[in-house]
Amino acid sequence: MCDFQQLKKCAAFVVLGAALGTGASAIASIDPPRGAGSPEGQAPRVGQNGAAHLPLKRGFYVHPEVACGEASAASLLLFRGAAISGSRDLCSFQQVLQIASDTWQVHESCEVSEGGRAWVVDSQSTWRITSPTSFERTNEEGWEVRARLCEQSSLPEPWKDNDIGDLLH
């Protein structure tokens, strides 16, 4: 468990880990990856201004063991294409590099709030996209968050009927 000072270093995954039941702690600010490889000698894929989109369907994600109909604010993540958010954080992707056919190195800037306090954490995560509707996200300390897409119509209220169209474009 992190105290407040540690939480500043590991905020992104504390919130996501708690939400998804992984017990994950978060990551500290880091330097850009050294020697990040690319698949089969190709140049890494980088989007405009270094903010590419991961090849995932946009929408609500939950841990694989959570039934979509039993999702809650604590267990939901909203993948927006260039960002992902949980109940207490919003992580914007600053740079996305494809380092293998199914793996991406992501530099994130996460706005985190906890107990009336808010701060920003710059971090690096490795995303393994297992399908267009599921992923594994791991920080440098080895904490992992796994999630799969839930169709919005399968979620409980209030998420079932929320208009999130503006957040997904």
Largest sheet properties: 8 strands, antiparallel, barrel
What is the chain-wise order of helices and strands? HEEEEEEEE
Percent of residues in beta strands: 35-45%
Mean pLDDT: 77
Radius of gyration, rounded? 15 Å
Number of strands: 8
Low-confidence stretches: 1-49
Order of strands in the sheet with most strands: 1-2-3-4-5-6-7-8
Q: Report, as a whole number of angstroms, the end-to-end distance.
A: 36 Å
Quickly count the helices.
Answer: 1
Describe the structure.
Helices cover about 10% and strands about 35% of the residues. It is globular and about 35 Å long. Strands 1-2-3-4-5-6-7-8 form an eight-stranded antiparallel beta barrel. The chain has one domain. The chain is built from one helix and eight strands; from the N terminus they run αββββββββ. β5 and β6 form a beta hairpin. It is mostly beta strands. The N and C termini lie far apart (about 35 Å). The chain has one helix at about 5-20; strands at about 60, 75-80, 85, 90-100, 105-115, 115-130, 135-140, 145-150. The model is unreliable at about 1-50 (pLDDT under 50).
Summarize this entry quickly:
By secondary structure, the protein is mainly beta. Helix content is 10%, strand content 37%.
Which terms summarize this structure?
169 residues, mainly beta, 10% helix, disordered N terminus, DUF3019 domain-containing protein, signal
